[in-house]
Amino acid sequence: MKKNTVAFSAVTLLLLVLIGFGIWMMISQQNNQSQGAPQDTTVKQKKTFTIDEVASHNSRTDCWTIISGQVYELTDFINRHPGGDEVLRACGTDATTLFTSRTTKDGQSIGSGTPHSQAAQEQLDQLKLGTLAK
Ligand code: HEM
């Protein structure tokens, strides 16, 4: 009788330990899920640049430009530009007029002298570095 009681207690204790372990596993799994995907720490920092900074990137091998208050790096794009080296006019300057109307500031047409296409604008978006400081 006493032996049975001891055995019963031992089994009960074992069951309680097992149930406890099961519950602990469930809770820790839920905690992991609620943490969700790891935080994206690669979110692009918003950057601003001065005109002087842009002006120092004024060559074929290091070409930044300003278009409508945004700063772009054109260096890798220069050799892919469908309009050839005309794009070099943009390096280190505010090229808003050049890009939006393909004319110089004094009204001289470059190529067709028409605005760049929507496709050109989309390519430009991919080259954005940041915003021009006010
Ligand atoms: C800001 C200085 C730039 C100048 C002076 C310039 C000039 C030209 C010229 C002369 C053409 C040949 C077609 C035509 O005469 O209409 C052309 C075509 C083209 N350029 Fe530019 N370009 C400039 C910047 C850019 C930039 C920054 C991009 C894009 C990142 C770009 C994208 C294109 C594309 C995609 C074409 C093919 C025609 C079109 O889709 O409009 N250009 N460009």
Query: Helix amount, in percent?
Result: 25-40%
Give the CATH topology of the largest domain. Answer: Flavocytochrome B2, Chain A, domain 1
> How many DSSP-defined strands?
5
Distance between the termini: 90 Å
Order of helices and strands, N to C?
Answer: HEHEEEHHE
- Tell me the strand order in the biggest sheet: 1-5-4-3-2
Kindly provide the name of the CATH class of the largest domain. Alpha Beta
Any low-confidence stretches, pLDDT <50, length ≥5?
Answer: 34-43
| Shape type | rod-shaped
CATH architecture of the largest domain: Roll
**Which hetero ligands occur in this complex?**
protoporphyrin IX containing FE
Chain oligomer state? single chain
Q: Roughly what is the average pLDDT, rounded to an integer?
A: 84
Strand content: 5-15%
**CATH superfamily assignment of the largest domain?**
Cytochrome b5-like heme/steroid binding domain
Structure commentary:
- With 134 residues, this protein is of the alpha+beta class.
- It has two domains: 1-39; 48-132, Roll (Flavocytochrome B2, Chain A, domain 1).
- 40% of the residues lie in helices and 14% in strands.
- It is built from four helices and five strands, in the order αβαβββααβ.
- It has helices spanning 2-35, 51-55, 96-101, 118-125, and strands at residues 48-49, 58-59, 62-67, 70-73, 128-132.
- Strands 1-5-4-3-2 form a five-stranded mixed sheet.
- β3 and β4 form a beta hairpin.
- It is rod-shaped.
- Residues 34-43 have low confidence and may be disordered.
